[in-house]
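ESCALATION

Customer reports they have been waiting on this structure for their group meeting. Please prioritize. Original submission:
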Amino acid sequence: MKHIYRLTLDDAVQVWLARWSGAYQHEIAARFSVNQGRVNEVLKGRRHSGSEQIAREKRDLH
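Update from on-call: job pushed to the front of the queue and completed.
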């Protein structure tokens, strides 16, 4: 049986940062070897809902 990778909270933060840097959802999905739908779940707030705020704080530090 094939193991399915689930995005972690840290991954979700990286998804937000990549999206804000101009990456498309399919490009981000390829980075993590996941379906584009998993990236969309993060960006729509259905998974790892706190990740956007963490990403904002992280982005503001740099």
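Sent to customer with the following note: The mean pLDDT is 94.
Escalation resolved.
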